[in-house]
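Before relying on records like the one below, remember that each one covers exactly one chain. Contacts with other chains, cofactors or solvent are not represented anywhere in the record.
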Amino acid sequence: MPPVTDKTLIPPSPSEDDYVRQVASAEPPALLSETDPFALFDAWFQEAVQKEANDANAMALATVDADGLPDVRMVLLKSVDADGFVFYTNLESAKGQELASQPKAALLFHWKSLRRQVRIRGTVTPTTAEEADAYFATRARPAQLGAWASDQSRTLPDRLALEKKIAEVGLRYGLGKVPRPPHWSGFRVAPQSLEFWRDRPFRLHERLVFERATGGWTTRRLFP
């Protein structure tokens, strides 16, 4: 097996002919809308739901630990409105503890099939208990049991230990309703900035940034 650094494993940069073919098949180069960032996000997201192979709501969540070292992982967006982007997790997990200590985060949506991405940076607040209860009630029962059974981010001796805990939780609740665990809830990222990026040929990409200001949003374009 060749080493992971072997250049044959990394796709080469596109040639000029490759870019010419991309131009021929690309969407019309209309400029991004400089209006409401949430309306633009919704339009892009709805298109991603139709065209992405799976998990159009997947987003990278970046936090920092107690030493200031960045940490990033994929989570799923569960709701979005003018107040922010919501996801749910175990509050005792690494990301839960990091957000409790440093309530700021960055998000990244990358829709490869659309050649688009959205970057978001902002402050983080907990969702309400009512919001968390309402979402938890929509989860499949095995996922509800898993939320009780998993000591997320902590050492797992072996797979059997997890399956045993899931079985124990299942016996505890029988066929009854599974309540939301007290250590499981949601976070809302209220954006201070959103950057919309769209692929253009020859790496001359289009970038539009919305930044929160008193009474609304300011916009500016960035060099690619």
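The longest strand covers residues 184-198.
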